[in-house]
From TrEMBL:
PANTHER family: MAJOR FACILITATOR SUPERFAMILY DOMAIN-CONTAINING PROTEIN 10 (PTHR23504), TRANSPORTER, PUTATIVE (AFU_ORTHOLOGUE AFUA_1G03730)-RELATED (PTHR23504:SF8). GO terms for molecular function: transmembrane transporter activity. GO terms for cellular component: membrane. Signal peptide: none annotated. It comes from Lasallia pustulata. Residues 25-519 form the Major facilitator superfamily (MFS) profile domain. Keywords: Membrane, Transmembrane, Transmembrane helix, Transport. Residues 258-294, 522-578 are annotated as: Disordered. It is found in: Membrane. The chain crosses the membrane at residues 64-83, 95-113, 156-177, 197-220, 312-333, 364-383, 395-418, 424-448, 455-475, 495-515. Residues 544-558 have a biased composition (Basic and acidic residues). InterPro entries: MFS, MFS_dom, MFS_trans_sf, Tet-R_TetA/multi-R_MdtG-like. This is MFS general substrate transporter.
Length: 578
């Protein structure tokens, strides 16, 4: 029987139906993931005000705000590989939970900052702690190896990030400086006067605690070399689920120390195969022999194939120009417009002009709110069916060719005749950019995942991807900000946008060298599960050192075929590898 790899909610043992998304595990991962984008984006509304409260001169506020944001990405780039290798060695679940604890502590440290140095150090600590981007991506890849399900599965975490990125700024803006913003409620609170930016981070820590509890109780370990070990958190979670189900159903249940068998597969968050107590004992012995031995972390030569390297280059360029655009847009919208362009000697259309829209922060925030809502709809409704129909590689190629055109056209929206047409024009361009970003990031993730030579290197590979993309996320805003300042001083607001167009064009070139690999949905993943089922039928009497024989059941005819114990299934044939 061939089944989906590490898919707790796939199908019942023995069924050969179509693969299904592990919805319950994706929900658990989403709960674990939600707090991070909320924490990271909540600082943006109050960061300039916070830096100004540290007695930084107003002309220097923008510079130090940029530095405070950049150290996060730089720290993330330094630790991403280490987090990935740790997840390969110790398992996905413990590393995900550890990263969440560290990020929560970093957020609290930032909220209690009393000077600029402490704030920068806290953001650096937050970046170094934020290793879950690649690890959760790896977990999704291990839970959903089937290519036909990957577009929908890989769109879930970006959707959660989008929702958190909308909710975070609203939360941070509403709760920052409460004693000043809401004196009728908090005006007499000495604690909030001393730490005006602690409240939003304290509230966010509640989201982290909820995610940590949910993950500890219900998250399944997907790392093949660690998932067979006893998980005390899931044992407690299983007990609680049984207790709650027993309370509401008011039916007599079996003792909680005896595992329920296949009748529990449909409803529990903790689905497992347990064919019988005898086979469980035999499987446990086999697991002790195969999985408890500590495996060394994969070497770098094992990780970096040609397709993997190309994918990393594409991913870095994508992060560089996309994040730079998102940072430049509010600056461009806030930049004052140039009036009387026809009589202005500093304006020589169509290329030389330096004006923006002159919008205030509330109007910019409204545009970005609609931008985020549109991103959610595209992420969940448009991306999965279109990626399935056209393929992720073709979608990535189309988007890569569209990015340079978007950046070339965007600055000319400032030349539209009225403020309304300017805002409508830039919003249409923003929607196009949103569409391309929403498609490109999951597509690169899927292609990168399927380019891995083995499942055991996925954690390290996604850690490398997190590090190199963090370099792009740090370099992009730096390049964009520098070229914007230089260009506006000389009357060319098009300079930063055309620089991004050039970078996007360079990043599009390696996309056409990519090849869509097969992944693990029908290969290594299925073989490993087949191996588990065969191990349950092994007679305990054979020596570990010998190449013994055991039976593999043929699903088509119900017969048995003798095969090597260390072989692997290819279709229904057994290939000995003794």
């Amino acid at each position: 029987m061939r089944a989906g790899f590490a898919n707790p909610s796939n199908s019942m043992p023995g069924s050969r139906g179509p693969p299904k998304l592990p919805v319950q595990q994706l929900v658990v991962l989403s709960i674990c993931r939600f707090a991070e984008p909320v924490a990271l984006s909540s600082v943006f509304p109050y960061l300039p005000e916070m830096i100004e409260s540290f007695h930084v001169p107003k002309p220097e506020v923008a510079k130090w705000a940029g530095i405070t944001s950049a150290v996060f990405a730089l720290s993330q780039s330094l630790t991403g590989i280490a987090w990935g290798r740790a997840s390969d060695r110790f398992g996905r679940k413990p590393v995900i939970l550890t990263s969440m604890v560290c990020t929560m502590l970093a957020s609290l440290c930032f909220g209690f900052s009393r000077n600029l140095g402490w704030a920068i150090a806290s953001r650096s600590f937050a970046g170094a702690s934020n290793g879950n981007v690649g690890i959760i991506r790896t977990t999704v890849a291990e839970l959903v190896p089937q290519k036909e399900l990957q577009p929908k599965a890989f769109s879930v975490m970006p959707l959660i990030w989008t929702i958190g990125s909308i909710f975070g700024p609203a939360l941070g803006g509403a709760l920052a400086s409460p004693a000043t913003a809401h004196p009728e409620w908090f005006g007499n609170n000495a604690f909030l006067k001393k730490y005006p930016y602690a409240l939003p981070n304290m509230v966010i820590s509640i989201f982290f605690l909820f995610g940590l509890t949910t993950g500890w109780l219900f998250l399944v370990e997907s790392n093949e070399t660690r998932k067979h070990r006893r998980d005390w958190g899931r044992s407690v979670g299983e007990f609680l689920v049984r207790a709650v189900k027993g309370f509401f159903s008011k039916k007599r249940r079996r003792p909680t120390w005896i595992r329920e068998e296949d009748d529990e597969q449909g409803g529990s968050l903790l689905n497992h195969r347990h064919s019988s107590s005898t086979s469980t004992v035999k499987a446990s012995k086999s697991e002790d022999r195969v999985y408890t031995q500590s495996q060394p972390p994969p070497g770098y030569l094992e990780i970096f194939s040609r397709q993997t390297n190309i994918n990393l280059v594409v991913y870095t360029f994508l992060a560089l120009h996309s994040i730079a655009c998102d940072q430049l847009l509010p600056i461009f919208m806030h930049n004052p417009p140039q009036t009387h362009r026809s009589a202005n000697p500093d304006v020589h259309l169509p290329l030389k002009f330096a004006g923006g829209f002159g919008l205030d922060s509330s109007r910019i925030g409204l545009l970005f709110t609609f931008y985020g809502i549109a991103g959610m709809l595209i992420q969940f409704l448009a991306f999965p069916p279109l990626a399935r129909r056209h393929g992720v590689l073709r979608c990535l190629k189309y988007c890569s060719l569209t990015f340079p055109l978007i950046y070339l056209v965007l600055p000319f929206t400032a030349l539209l005749p009225t403020p309304l047409t300017q805002q409508l024009g830039v919003f249409v361009i923003m929607l196009c950019k949103c569409w391309c970003s929403i498609f490109s990031f999951p597509c690169t993730t899927i292609l990168l995942t399927n380019s891995a030579v083995s499942l055991r290197v996925l954690g390290t590979l996604n850690g490398v991807a997190t590090s190199v993309s963090a370099i792009g996320r740090a370099a992009g805003p730096a390049i964009g900000g520098a070229t914007f300042s230089w260009g506006v001083k000389r009357g060319y607001v098009i300079l930063p946008w055309w620089t991004l167009a050039l970078l996007a064009a360079l990043g599009a070139v390696p996309v056409f060298w990519l090849v869509e690999m097969e992944g693990f949905g029908e290969g290594e993943a299925g073989d490993e599960e087949d191996g588990e089922e065969r191990e349950e039928e092994v007679d305990d009497g054979r020596d570990d050192g010998e190449c013994g024989f055991h039976a593999a059941r043929d699903d088509r005819g119900g017969g048995e075929a003798a095969a090597s114990a260390s072989g692997r299934l290819v279709g229904h044939d057994f290939v000995p590898e003794c």
